[in-house]
Fold:
Amino acid sequence: GQQLNQSPQSMFIQEGEDVSMNCTSSSIFNTWLWYKQEPGEGPVLLIALYKAGELTSNGRLTAQFGITRKDSFLNISASIPSDVGIYFCAQNSGGSNYKLTFGKGTLLTVNP
Amino acid sequence: NAGVTQTPKFQVLKTGQSMTLQCAQDMNHNSMYWYRQDPGMGLRLIYYSASEGTTDKGEVPNGYNVSRLNKREFSLRLESAAPSQTSVYFCASRLADEETQYFGPGTRLLVL
Structure:
């Protein structure tokens, strides 16, 4: 099956720093999804991207759909302690059934 | 609305025992999904139900069965648990024609 390569695996940063993570695939997709999972919880959708080149923001979060349609980036500006969690990229691999394939995640730790 | 609820929160089983993980949603969603999450692996789809009365295999269905009891409930059964099924299990639901999947809080299963 398809694989999503997400990097970095983990990040340990100071509060106030900016964060950047990315996801790549060997296949072309029509959407990119970014989820956040807080400790002990299920994932929550942060941003959905639908067009190549699209840049979408959600507060301090900005995500971009790569021009090649094989990659996506998520940036977090001015990080705060509550940004801690695992960030996943995901793809709809099941057409109208919306079966999601997830990357392995980026674990973010923010030091106050 | 409670959203997606899962029971139990934690479970310890011995190899060979059986159990059923319960999932319910009160959002009138059509589709429901079961994922498992293992360290460093992201989430992988076990089974899904596109609509009431239908179920299909996902990426890792071996060792599991599912039942879509009604529109609200989607259960996951382990007939003979194995240590390799030690994982965190997430249920999710989705409204027809919408991208977003809503996840429950998870069931943490340990098989000894």
User: Anything to note?
Assistant: The CA atoms of residues 12 and 42 of chain A lie 22 Å apart.
